[in-house]
Amino acid sequence: MSGLPAGGAVPELFHELFDDAAVFPPGNLPVAEAVPAHRVHRAAWYAEAVGPLLCGAGRLGELAAAVTAAAAAGGPAQAGGAALRVGLVLPGGSAELAQALAAAAPFELAGVELATRDAAEAVAELDRLLPPDVPAAVELPRELLRGDDLDAVLDVLVDSPYRAKFRTGGLVAEAFPDEAELAAFLTGCARRGLPYKCTAGLHNAVRHTDPETGFEHHGFLNVLLAAQETDPAAAEAVLAERDGEVLAKAVRALTDRQVTVIRNSFTAFGTCSIAEPLGDLAALGLLSSPTPPHQEDR
């Protein structure tokens, strides 16, 4: 980037990068607490970095009740505006789509994330049911995103208006792809001009081994920098970097055009904590933080 903004401004590279997945594992914040916490995020100095509140299709009733309770309580729960922007997550696939869209009517629908084993079928159902102004992302199991299967899936999505979605972590070691697997996905999307989002395991800026679980976590800065690569070997090298200062220096050197290319590719990722990624950016000198971000209760 051509310099980093001062005084708490959020650099364009991080605008709406962090989708609020507080209600999902491993955070598991109760919906009734996640709604006011998200309102605080949306009213804070770092609000430009925060995407929608993600909610599974089966919890929309809880979400509606939480919004009603927050409205009745008033105060800080109402910060950030009355309309709650919600990202609708459909782990059950397109069979859930029609009913979930109806249940999401009280909210400002920021997007739909649909898990499937059949990309073409998912695209057809989204075409049929999704309002034209609502974006969507299609997630396939990682075992269907390897080799020729990866190319076939990406070719289906590139001919649609929808993003790809890739799972970068989870609750077991096997849920974390290695550098080669993730690089194949990133560069396959980059070569096609196909945007994507990621989810799980990315709430820290730099690649690392979790000291408690031993899991190998990708860093979101690594993924951002790798998003501009079309060569798998080059992307792998960026994803493997564990020195935060090296990554921070590379971020500072990005041009405006590179930032645009990166964010047109890697659009967002779900994180159960908003405070942790922002704290990492501040520690690396990539974000000027006038006050600490709101820390979600666990």
What features would you describe in this structure?
- The chain has eleven helices and ten strands.
- Helix 5 packs parallel to helix 6 (179-192) and helix 6 (179-192) crosses helix 8 (232-240).
- The strands form two sheets. An eight-stranded parallel β-barrel has the order 1-2-3-4-5-6-7-10, surrounded by six helices.
- It has helices spanning 31-43, 60-73, 97-103, 119-129, 147-158, 179-192, 220-226, 232-240, 244-252, 256-265, 275-283, and strands spanning 18-20, 50-56, 85-90, 108-115, 136-139, 163-167, 196-199, 208-209, 216-217, 266-271.
- It is of the alpha/beta class.
Task: Give start-end ranges of low-pLDDT stretches.
Answer: 1-7, 76-81
Major beta sheet, strand line-up = 1-2-3-4-5-6-7-10
Number of helices: 11
**Describe the biggest sheet?**
8 strands, parallel, barrel
What is the strand tally? 10
Globular, elongated, flat, extended or rod-shaped: what is the shape? globular
Round the mean pLDDT to the nearest integer and report it. 92
Distance between the termini: 35 Å
What's the helix-strand series?
EHEHEHEHEHEHEEEHHHHEH
Structural class: alpha/beta
The helix content is 25-40%
Q: Which strand-content bin applies to the residues?
A: 15-25%
- Using only C-alpha atoms, the radius of gyration works out to 18 Å
Quick summary of this structure?
This protein has eleven helices and ten strands. With 298 residues, the chain is an alpha/beta fold.
